[in-house]
């Protein structure tokens, strides 16, 4: 087996972040399948003393801890380490930001194979400046141009790679493991947040503006405070799980929106039994994001047999479209439309039988189409193709290399 280096993620294990969850699930399975797997971590997310996670090797390197330079500075150092110290066979860049350096390994040693994964349309995210958005879109172009293989986690991102960057991408979605065992601590967890089973809406998200949590808060307030709201509706709560990512001003804005409200609860980051209990016992999962790649939190909610209500962006509709046999496995509302979101919540809250039926279909859909074992197998196939197939036509062959080795 050969060495695989994951670069671009904050690290593993980590408490939040779709990219990090993706890398954790994939790297653990690859290492158990016999690959020599290395994940680069940042010390302000994962303690530098962590050298192993299960069978995965962790390599901690510093970074410039600022909003614009944290990821790229860490990616640069990790790339140099992976080429010269680790001597990796495959470098797998996670996200379009880190992929802006996907050409560098080919210059330093063209024997190294490069894979990039496009996780989301980061250039559309509101937290970035104009220059940062330009660089992220450039990263998407480089991800398609210089890598030996490009992976897209959604069909819409796959189409973007082809239409905008004239580069083919292999569709391999995010996945999610199915929960099975009961959570014996669930009652205690809910009591700690003053919650009752099936009496709260849930969203699990980083508190970033493009995630649209403010739309959900406004819709919930409008629903609860309107004249004629039912007594039953008065018991409903909204639970928001997650924290910031260089977006403290947005968090302050959300806290201002919810000031003095006891029916809207911010839990901060939750993991393990706490997060399991919150997923397992919510009535409905809501995802109001303006932009996504392929939401792992939505998949997680579906894996618990929960009905999901998502904004009608293409990536979300892809998740809930189901198939000809099952039909839709979720519900949608018009993106950014607070009134439509409030109306859909009210309809679903008053129709628990439908919510339960769709939730059950959602779990089966995840089991069939978003299985991590199948995703790992498909990713392994890509690695084997680019490393073991000697006569494969390269997408990018530099005229020179700093390595003295030749294929």
Query: Strand percentage, roughly?
Result: 5-15%
Q: H/E element string?
A: EHEEEHEHEHEHEHEHHEHEHEHEHEHHH
Helix content: 40-55%
Strand pairing plus helix content: what structural class?
alpha/beta
The CATH architecture of the largest domain can be named as 3-Layer(aba) Sandwich
Rounded mean pLDDT score: 88
Main sheet: which strands, in order across? Answer: 3-4-2-1-5-6-7-8
Q: How large, in whole angstroms, is the Cα Rg?
A: 22 Å
Broad shape? globular
Number of strands: 14
Poorly predicted residue ranges:
390-394, 403-407
Structure, described:
There is one protein chain. This protein has 407 residues and is α/β, with parallel strands linked by helices. The protein has two domains: 191 residues, Glycogen Phosphorylase B (Rossmann fold, 3-Layer(aba) Sandwich); 184 residues, Rossmann fold, CATH 3.40.50.2000. It contains 15 helices and 14 strands. An eight-stranded mixed beta sheet has the order 3-4-2-1-5-6-7-8, with helices on both faces. A six-stranded parallel beta sheet has the order 11-10-9-12-13-14, sandwiched between helices. Helix 11 links the parallel strand 12 and strand 13. Helix 1 packs across helix 15, helix 6 crosses helix 10 and helix 7 crosses helix 13. The protein is globular and about 65 Å long.
Write the layout of secondary structure elements.
Blueprint: E1 3-7, H1 18-32, E2 36-41, E3 52-53, E4 56-60, H2 70-86, E5 90-94, H3 104-108, E6 113-118, H4 130-145, E7 149-152, H5 155-165, E8 170-171, H6 186-192, E9 200-204, H7 213-225, H8 231-234, E10 237-241, H9 248-257, E11 264-268, H10 272-281, E12 284-287, H11 296-303, E13 308-311, H12 314-320, E14 331-333, H13 338-349, H14 352-369, H15 372-388
Parallel strand pairs: 1-2, 1-5, 2-4, 5-6, 6-7, 7-8, 9-10, 9-12, 10-11, 12-13, 13-14
Antiparallel strand pairs: 3-4
Helix pairs in contact: 1-15, 6-10, 7-13
């Amino acid at each position: 087996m050969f060495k695989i280096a994951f670069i671009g993620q904050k690290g593993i294990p980590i408490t939040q972040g779709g990219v990090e969850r993706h890398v954790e699930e994939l790297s653990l399975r690859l290492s158990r399948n016999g690959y020599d797997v290395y994940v680069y971590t940042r010390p302000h997310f994962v303690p530098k003393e962590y050298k192993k996670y299960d069978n995965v090797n962790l390599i901690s390197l510093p970074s410039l801890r600022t909003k614009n330079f944290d990821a790229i500075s860490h990616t640069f150092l990790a790339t140099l380490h992976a080429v010269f110290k680790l001597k990796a066979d495959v470098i797998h860049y996670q996200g379009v930001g880190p992929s802006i350096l996907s050409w560098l390994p080919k210059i330093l040693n063209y024997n190294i194979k490069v894979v990039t994964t496009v996780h989301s349309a980061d250039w559309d995210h509101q937290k970035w400046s104009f220059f940062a958005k330009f660089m992220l879109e450039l990263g998407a172009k480089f991800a398609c141009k210089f890598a030996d293989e490009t992976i897209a986690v959604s069909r819409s991102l796959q189409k973007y790679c082809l239409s905008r960057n004239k580069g083919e991408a292999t569709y391999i979605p995010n996945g999610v493991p199915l929960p099975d065992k009961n959570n014996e601590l669930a009652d205690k967890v809910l009591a700690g947040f003053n919650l009752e089973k099936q009496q709260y809406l849930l969203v699990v998200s980083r508190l970033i503006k493009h995630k649209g949590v403010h739309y959900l808060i406004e819709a919930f307030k409008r629903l609860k405070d309107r004249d004629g709201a039912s007594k039953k509706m008065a018991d409903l709560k909204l639970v928001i799980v997650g924290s910031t990512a260089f977006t403290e001003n947005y968090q302050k804005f959300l806290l201002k929106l919810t000031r003095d409200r006891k029916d809207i609860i911010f839990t901060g980051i939750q993991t393990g039994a706490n997060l399991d209990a919150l997923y397992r016992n919510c009535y409905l999962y809501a995802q109001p994001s303006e932009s996504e790649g392929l939401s792992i939190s939505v998949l997680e909610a579906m894996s618990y047999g929960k009905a999901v209500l998502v904004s009608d962006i293409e990536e979300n509709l892809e998740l809930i479209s189901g198939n000809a046999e099952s039909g839709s496995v979720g519900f949608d509302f018009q993106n950014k439309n607070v009134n439509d979101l409030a109306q859909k919540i009210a309809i679903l809250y008053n129709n628990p039988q439908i919510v339960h039926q769709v939730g059950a279909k959602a779990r089966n859909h995840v089991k069939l189409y978003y299985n991590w074992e199948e995703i790992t197998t498909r990713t392994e196939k890509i690695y084997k193709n680019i490393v073991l197939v000697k006569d494969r036509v390269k997408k990018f062959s530099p005229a020179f290399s700093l390595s003295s080795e030749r294929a």
